[in-house]
Amino acid sequence: MSLASELKSLVDELDRVHSGASPWSEEVGIPEFVTAENGLQRYFTRKAKTALWQLSTILHENRPPSSLKIELDEYEKIVRQAVADMHAADEFSGFDEVDESNLIPRLKILVEERLASITPEYTHYFPAWTIGVERSSPFTIGPVTIFNRFDWIDSVDFPQRGKEQYLNQPEANSRWREILKEALQKPRDDTPLEGLANTVYSAISECPALVKVTVCGYEKSFSRKLAKLTAKTALDAISLGFGVPESFQQQALHEERLPPIGTNSLVETKGFLWLPGSSLGKRIPSLPPSRVKQALIDLASILPAFGEILDGLLTPSNHKHPKLANRWATALDWYGEGCRESSDAIALAKLGTCLDVLACGGKNIGIRDMVVHLTGTSESTQVVSGSHPRTLGQLVKDIYDSGRSKILHGTHYDRLESFSVERKQAAYLARIVLIETAVRLQNYNGSDDDKAFRTI
After folding, report:
1. How confident is the model at residue 336 (pLDDT cuts 50, 70, 90)?
2. CB-based contacts of 210: which residues, under 8 Å, 6+ apart?
3. How deeply is 256 buried, as exposed, middle or buried, from its count of CB atoms within 10 A (0-12, 13-18, 19+)?
4. Nearest to 435 by CA among 366, 357, 374
5. What distance lies between CA 378 and its chain's CA centroid?
6. What does each C-alpha distance from 147 to 39, 137, 184, 205, 255 come to in angstroms?
7. CA 344/CA 404 separation, integer angstroms
């Protein structure tokens, strides 16, 4: 249907509902309502919401590329408010699909004006666990900065008016930094905090670090989604550089799905319990500060390549190859999830998918050719020795055909079947490929083609 016909359907339903009909008798529950600018309420029945969604979809799809970035769900809310304001003001009186009164341009202008009033820049902070790259001072990789909690507290503040008025506690609010730092140094103290410090404490008390990402040109909710993806990519890129699979569990955003820090076991034999056993997981950072510092020095030539890709995620227009930057980050996401995965079989499938994303399909052959090109190693070269030697070509085939494909297609379904060796081999190979493609992308001047990593 056309824009005019969808708007006509919506207006007709709003006219019906607000001309004496009882929307409650036809709905499951109370219909959604919006309070218009003039104080009147407008109810949106199921039929009205369907028409509103269709109308919003058409408007959203035809917005100029340079417009503020906003997802359809949030955009629909703005359209709904604009329609409610216009309907409550009786602006749709006599509206028909010919729209000789130019109400559709009026609606578009109203929606864009309200979008224009949205703040175009947001800085998001994500509590996170890290291996300590920020321990001595803020650590920056591309557009992302990682703070320890105390440095972060020193870098931010609330508006003066907020400190004067919040909970009517101006004295405590003016000292929120001092109160918060003291509380963080006494984690087992249950004494309630006063004022703003209490609110911030609940947000940052569980993680030792905060990841900062600034996004421009996006609506708030959409900007947070992009910022979160970028922050996660930054942590995973650092873990990739460190080359320790456990670091993917030790570096993660607070809201990510992670295994427990430790587990307990209960066993009974011959009718009697053993004493409960316990073990720590891989989430506890084990690298001493000196090792972390030295590793960052060793990665000095690689981290800028990761930083450029992060820039490409936030500002695609400033990157020479935004599609390839996004593809690399997506492949890294699969790699990181593979390293965090507890099941060897599922991890192998995810690591194989990482290589598949980088090669942009091509199955085993496409991945093999990409790996041969990037490593300079012939497919016939033996790369695995021991009782089950494998050439590079055979190893890639094992990872993709015998591993990823058969696991995802259900050929391998016995969960006791071991894939631990294959997992380690896939993780090693994928790490080499990810680092090499990131470094080469820095100096690549070819086209931004999906299959470019095969020949970059």
Report:
1. very high
2. 125, 126, 127, 128, 146, 147, 149, 152, 204
3. middle
4. 374
5. 37
6. 46, 7, 15, 14, 17
7. 11
pLDDT band for position 25 (cuts 50, 70, 90):
low
Instruction: Report pLDDT digits (tens) over 256-277.
Output: 988 888 889 999 999 999 999 9
Owner of token pair 């790259």: 133
pLDDT digits (tens, 9 = 90+) for 186-208: 988 888 899 999 999 999 999 99
- d(C-alpha 14, C-alpha 45), whole Å: 8
Q: Report which residue type is found at 184.
A: L
Q: Which amino acid, one-letter code, is at 337?
A: E
Residue 154 has a pLDDT of 98
Q: Which of 308, 254, 294, 278 is nearest to 440 (CA)?
A: 308
Q: Show the 3-state SS of the chain.
A: CCHHHHHHHHHHHHHHHCCCCCHHHHCCCCCEEEECCCCCEEEECHHHHHHHHHHHHHHHHCCCCCCCECCHHHHHHHHHHHHHHHHHCCCCCCCCCCCCCCHHHHHHHHHHHHHHCCCCEEEEEEEEECCCCCCCCCEEECCEEEEEHHHHHHHCCCCHHHHHHHHHCHHHHHCHHHHHHHHHCCCCCCCCCCCHHHHHHHHHCCCCEEEEEEEECECHHHHHHHHHHHHHHHHHHHHHHHCCCCHHHHCEECCCCCCCCEEEECCEECCEECCCEEEECCCCCCCCHHHHHHHHHHCCCCHHHHHHHHHHHHCHHHCCCHHHHHHHHHHHHHHHHHHHCCCHHHHHHHHHHHHHHHHCCCHHHHHHHHHHHHHCCCCCCEEECCCCCEEHHHHHHHHHHHHHHHHHCCCCCCCCCCCHHHHHHHHHHHHHHHHHHHHHHHCCCCCCCCCHHHCC
Dump pLDDT digits (tens) for 360-404.
988 899 999 999 999 999 999 999 998 889 999 999 999 998 888
**What's the CA gap between 72 and 338, in Å, rounded?**
31
For residue 440, what are its two tokens? 């080469």
pLDDT digits (tens, 9 = 90+) for 429-451: 999 999 999 999 999 999 999 99
Write out the two tokens for 90: 């009786």
Angle (nearest 5°) at CA 175 between 173 and 177: 105
Q: Rounded distance, CA 116 to CA 120, Å? A: 8
